[in-house]
Description:
Blueprint: E1 2-15, E2 18-31, E3 35-39, H1 46-54, E4 61-66, E5 69-70, E6 78-81, H2 93-97, H3 99-103, H4 109-121, H5 137-149, E7 155-159, H6 167-183, E8 187-192, H7 195-201, E9 204-209, E10 214-220, H8 223-226, H9 230-233, H10 237-257
Parallel strand pairs: 3-8, 3-9, 6-7, 7-8
Antiparallel strand pairs: 1-2, 1-4, 4-5, 9-10
Pfam family, one: ABC_tran
Organism: Oceanobacillus chungangensis
InterPro entries: AAA+_ATPase (IPR003593), ABC_transporter-like_ATP-bd (IPR003439), ABC_transporter-like_CS (IPR017871), ABC_transporter_ATP-bind (IPR050166), P-loop_NTPase (IPR027417)
Amino acid sequence: xxxxxxxxxxxxxxxxxxxxxxxxxxxxxxxxxxxxxxxxxxxxxxxxxxxxxxxxxxxxxxxxxxxxxxxxxxxxxxxxxxxxxxxxxxxxxxxxxxxxxxxxxxxxxxxxxxxxxxxxxxxxxxxxxxxxxxxxxxxxxxxxxxxxxxxxxxxxxxxxxxxxxxxxxxxxxxxxxxxxxxxxxxxxxxxxxxxxxxxxxxxxxxxxxxxxxxxxxxxxxxxxxxxxxxxxxxxxxxxxxxxxxxxxxxxxxxxxxxxxx
Length: 261
């Protein structure tokens, strides 16, 4: 049974000169506990899809269902993690993590205990009373991950959360996120431009067309890769085979879109 469904979703951006079709007839479904990636050129609508699912933006046409309920009618928590950590520099780490529950009047001492436990789980046991300026970029992004998880969301939306990090830190965070999401049985959608990251993190990879955004092809990640950590996935023979197929698909689309003068 589908946990998340996009049913013929389209979206237009309107201006005084007309409109731009950002998404065209997007239909996809995600099972509970599944991790999928959206991969495609800039401007193909990947982040627009996340914004529609999160309820930040209303689609022009079509419906979005979460556990068979319209997304506008569900009370399930959705977590959204962005490329920047957006930690408030004047607040301590623990106060940054607990900002959401406080705003929603859901803060309890149990919430604070959960925040400290999650900080420990992500390898930051002694930073609660420190300020963001005392942390490295990778550490700050781990805090952002804890902030995303603190309300125990059923669905996680990840908009290029590792793209600003150095490669070694990026790989470590990929491993951490994959482990946490499997442990807590989270459903996730990742937006990325990185083919390797999409393969290493996902159960399925959705390739998108641009102008307007649409689903071009879906690649199933072999079970042998899904059972490995993201770092070990990259060493597997089937990783390179899938990488080459996805690269060929993306390269084909890029070549087709080039204008000949």
